[in-house]
């Protein structure tokens, strides 16, 4: 574990390395989760999943195949045995070769479905300090916790934001907004605010910050359980 000297005392810090799906999640982890966990002496390192290499250049961001993600994760684990590892991958459009994906049709409940996939993921990685996390169903579900906060970035979209609020009110929780091609969280947002598609890596984390972790955790049970698990880690 890392150490940090403050005055005459030495504090041991818990370190957690996170592989995320894209730049939006990377910024969210860095700007929203890392400061919160830092207050608990938990240091976060985050990077996008590796998707390819060419001419000694590494390309990151996007889940093109599970095997690439697994290789990237295991390589990082081998390089840093004194840290915990976790992920933040969207359930929506997980690659077909992802552990457990071929047998999830039997789960009507999204929480049971994602729990099954995470168990299979953990079994396949088979590393003691690995904590799998799959976001239900996308990062944007977090933003739909409180659609009115879109006004911090899209201040001239009050009509569309109101429609988004009405759509979200039809669901039990933001995490229940599904993985349909046209009805996934990001699709619902882009249908009303098309410019979100090209600005999500900036707009998304800003909106999440405006909503605040307390609200996000209250509305998104699966996300909260992940965060609780990270908060309660102990020194290795």
Outline:
Helices cover 44% and strands 19% of the residues.
Key descriptive features of the protein:
alpha/beta, six-stranded mixed beta sheet, 236 residues, two-stranded antiparallel ribbon
Task: Tell me the strand percentage band.
Answer: 15-25%
Count of alpha/pi helices: 9
Q: How many β-strand stretches?
A: 8
Shape designation: globular
- Structural category is alpha/beta
Low confidence ranges: none
Oligomer: single chain
Provide the gyration radius in Å: 18 Å
**CA distance, first residue to last residue:** 7 Å
Tell me the helix content.
40-55%
Order of helices and strands: EEHEEEHEHEEHHHHHH
Question: How would you describe the overall organization of this protein?
Answer:
With 236 residues, this protein is an alpha/beta fold. The mean pLDDT is 93. Helix 1 (23-38) packs parallel to helix 7 and helix 8 crosses helix 9. It has helices at 23-38, 66-79, 110-125, 140-143, 158-168, 185-192, 196-211, 213-219, 221-231; strands at residues 2-6, 9-20, 42-48, 50-54, 57-60, 84-90, 130-131, 134-135. A hairpin with a 2-residue loop joins strand 1 (2-6) and strand 2 (9-20). The protein is globular and about 50 Å long. It contains 9 helices and 8 strands. Strands 1, 2, 3, 6, 7 and 8 form a 6-stranded mixed beta sheet that branches. Helices cover 44% and strands 19% of the residues.
């Amino acid at each position: 574990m890392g150490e940090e000297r403050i005055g005459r005392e030495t504090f041991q810090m818990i370190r957690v390395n996170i592989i995320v799906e894209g730049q939006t999640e990377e910024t969210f982890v860095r700007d929203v989760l890392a400061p919160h966990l830092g207050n608990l002496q938990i240091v976060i390192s985050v990077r996008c999943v590796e998707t390819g290499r060419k001419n000694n250049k590494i390309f990151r961001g996007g889940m093109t195949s599970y095997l690439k993600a697994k290789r990237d994760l295991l390589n990082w684990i081998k390089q840093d045995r004194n840290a915990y590892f976790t992920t933040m991958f969207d359930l929506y459009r997980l690659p077909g070769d992802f552990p457990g994906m071929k047998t999830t049709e039997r789960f009507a409940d999204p929480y049971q479905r994602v729990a099954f996939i995470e168990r299979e993921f953990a079994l396949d990685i088979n590393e003691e300090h690995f904590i799998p996390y799959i976001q239900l169903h996308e990062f944007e579900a977090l933003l739909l916790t409180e659609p009115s906060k879109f006004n911090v970035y899209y201040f001239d979209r009050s009509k569309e934001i109101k429609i988004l609020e009405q759509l979200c009110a039809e669901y039990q929780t933001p995490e229940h907004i599904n993985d349909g091609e046209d009805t996934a969280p990001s699709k619902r947002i882009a249908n009303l605010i098309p410019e979100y598609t090209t600005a999500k890596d900036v707009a998304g984390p800003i909106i999440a910050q405006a909503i605040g972790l307390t609200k996000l955790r209250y509305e998104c049970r699966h996300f909260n359980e992940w965060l609780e698990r990270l908060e309660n880690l102990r020194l290795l």
